[in-house]
Design a protein that fits this description.
This protein has seven helices and ten strands. By secondary structure, it is an alpha+beta fold. The longest helix has 25 residues.
């Protein structure tokens, strides 16, 4: 079983840049049958990792995490070689007003997305797609709150439209960054350096939607009071 676990770990690292801890991998393998084919084991392990909190499931070795001094604003620019796996904690469409952001969140809660200016119904197969390909686009650039396996948090700004990035992203979604520029502690994201792996942490996603709407409404009310 140990040899099979090593093969699963190698497959996850080679295909997804996911490096689970030995503790996580051992616990996972203990729930599987030794006769299960390697591709099926790897697929199941990948799904579970993408649905996990990477601060408890992934290795914190230096190459897979952000530099410890990543928030040093005195460093004007650096290049993050990676690959670094991050998970999404929050997202904002910087082109939309607060009311527009509330409306976008509520539309997604009703199962609606957009295609250009047309409102469409999101099907179950689209909701289940972990690739991020069916994320509601439009607007942008987007500002993302991200976290690595060590627990370090950082903001990322979408310089160019990245496939899978949008307000419909699931909180807990995993991203891989390679050769990305970090300018004064902010990651500059584009299609060449950002890959969406997918995934979702259900409890985080529900809490974020509720809290985000409340925060936006509170900000609107405070702005209205100040203008009276």
């Amino acid at each position: 079983m140990a040899q099979l676990a090593a093969q699963v770990g190698a497959q996850l690292a080679g295909t997804k840049n996911l490096h689970p801890t030995q503790q996580w991998l051992t616990a996972f393998m203990n729930t599987q049958k030794s006769t299960t084919p390697l591709p099926a084991l790897t697929q199941t392990a990948s799904f579970r990792l993408l649905s996990s909190d990477i601060t408890t499931s992934l290795s914190v070795d230096a190459p897979q995490c952000l530099p410890l001094d990543i928030h040093n604003v005195e460093i004007k620019e650096r290049r993050l070689q990676g690959p670094v796996v991050l998970q999404l904690l929050g997202i904002e469409d910087m082109s939309k007003s607060r009311w527009e952001q509330i409306e976008a969140i509520e539309a997604l809660e009703r199962g609606e997305g957009t295609k250009g200016r047309e409102i469409i119904r999101v099907t179950n197969s689209e909701e289940a797609d972990d690739s991020g390909a069916n994320v509601n686009k439009g607007g942008g650039p987007h500002k993302l709150s991200l976290q690595d396996a060590r627990g370090s948090r950082i903001f990322g700004i979408e310089l160019q439209e990245v496939r899978g990035v949008g307000l419909g992203m699931s909180i807990g979604c995993k991203l891989v960054l390679k050769n990305a520029v970090v300018a004064r502690g902010v990651i500059l994201m584009d299609p060449a350096n950002t890959t969406i792996l997918g995934g979702k942490i259900g409890a985080w996603h529900k809490a974020w939607k509720e809290n985000r709407k409340a925060e936006l409404k509170a900000a609107i009310e405070a702005s209205e009071r100040n203008t009276r």
